[in-house]
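Checklist before submission:
- one chain only
- standard amino acids only
- sequence pasted in full

Submission:
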Amino acid sequence: MLAFHRQIEVTCDEGVTAEYAARSIRWLAEADETLVREICQYALYYLQDESESTSRGELSDEDMRHIQEPSEVLRYMESGSLDIRIPKDLEIPVLDLSGGCDWQEDEGLHCLIKNGHVVYMGSWNDEDVWDEHLLNDDKYLSNYVLYPKREELRQKLRRD
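Returned file contents:
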């Protein structure tokens, strides 16, 4: 992804074909500006949440707290790895990106993209891009794709 200005390490699970790996790399290389903006917006939500829940002095760069445009968050993050797993559907483009971010150095950054949209953004974990539960309401604390609806989801889950 050109917007990240980094080399990305590619790892493939055993059984992934060379053809599918090449397609996955092409999907990453062809990511459009809309997808990059979506990634940046969800990463910015992640940063904002960390800023709100962290002592003021713990985030190293004061400029991070004053980001105006979502794309500015790219200065504080890097996507270092593309993991290619055996697909459930060869025709649906998926990307499993992980890397680092300045606001959460210990837990890093994990971004899962399915069919051109981010389905998970948050700290690194072993989430699977094919997991249909990634966008479930109860994931609102860990998946920053759900951040804009966080208060609504919190209230809903309290009622249930």
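Reviewer check: The beta strands are 9-12, 77-84, 94-101, 109-114, 117-122.
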